[in-house]
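Re: beginner question about structure tokens

> Can someone show what the tokenized structure looks like for a real chain? I only ever see the sequence side.

Sure, here's an example I had lying around. Input first:
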Amino acid sequence: MKTVSFKDYDGYKYVDGGVCAASGFKAGGCYAGIKKSPTHDGNDTPVKMKNDLGMIESEILCNAAAVYTQNKVKGAPILVTKANLAATGGRAKAVIVNSKNANTCNADGEDKARRMCQLAAENLGCKPEEVIVASTGVIGLVLPIEPFEKHVPALAKSLTHEGNDEAALAIMTTDTFPKQCAVEFTCGGMTCHLGGMAKGSGMIHPNMATTLNFVTTDCAVSAEMLQKALSEVVKVTYNCLSVDGDQSTNDMVALMANGMAGNAEITADGEDFAAFAQALYIVMKNMTRMLAKDGEGATKLLECRVSGAKDRDTAIVIAKSVVCSSLLKAAMFGEDANWGRVLCAVGYADAEFDINEVDVKFTSEYGMVHVCENGAGIPFSEEEAAKVLSADEIYIEVTVGSGEGKATAYGCDLTYDYVKINGEYRN
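And the corresponding structure tokens:
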């Protein structure tokens, strides 16, 4: 299984539980038959069906915020969730989500998404507009509503404070492992928790990468400040993520805060807001790294760290340009220190800098190799470079001057398996 090591942050402690780490949240998942799966393997051995329906519920109504794909074609669940949060003034109590079918580009899509909300509300004791709805999977297939009508009642009853794993499994499509992270922190003198789950492996590109992400917290934060924190953190996490350059129709990050930690509600900037935003950043950064490492067919996590830019926005543009380069991604798969592909990607980035000040290094757990200085190649050992690039997490360090701007973008290598997976996706 692919794993990503979490980084330590002073004052923040990693904990188990994902979306159930925060007080008052329950979750669960089940197989509902949204997509037919074989009941036996090739040897007639029964196999366990993979979850395709998940739910999250808060014991009390939450403040909520969300960000969505920038694709002009948007899945019906996004349209319904946006309408729901607008109707409630940024309040939600539950999430219902399915995989296998994106419910996108269907004439009856919004009706089906609203019906999902209604079913969840009827079985959780809330209003339909207090439900966040999401779907992921194949685009253009009519979503059958019968599996929801049959399985939502039992799933709603089965939700537990330990059900995060089942929920995380329910949102997976081509993912090879569930993606969860949670932290404990102090805010307003109270112990708070924030945790999340994410899915995504392919069709991932900056500007709300193709992912579904759900984050919960027991920290008390107003809907307005939730939206502020989420929008700021997305800019330096998910919006700096690319696997294949394709932007999905169903991307969503939803954030819910029920305030059960007991801190005074955060309604403005200040130390408490900074503490909360940092917790959100830690969780979303780690899930971003997991999403990058689990790119379809990927064998390596790539991080491009740009420094010396005139400002952060410039650094972000350059870092994204590098991790989006198909040529560089292929070179990293081949463990080839073809640094010219880095400079090529830096050079066509829509950003201002002096190419004669560009410096490039490849680093990993196996060491560092300096390959470019002042915009020109320098001698290095190909054998040492191949060793550095044999690691499964590679850092491409790019300096573009002496400015204060810095940023990191996340991606993965490009392998033969990517074509195979996407050539057979609907099968």
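Each token stands for a local structural state, so reading them left to right follows the chain. The CA atoms of residues 67 and 253 lie 5 Å apart.
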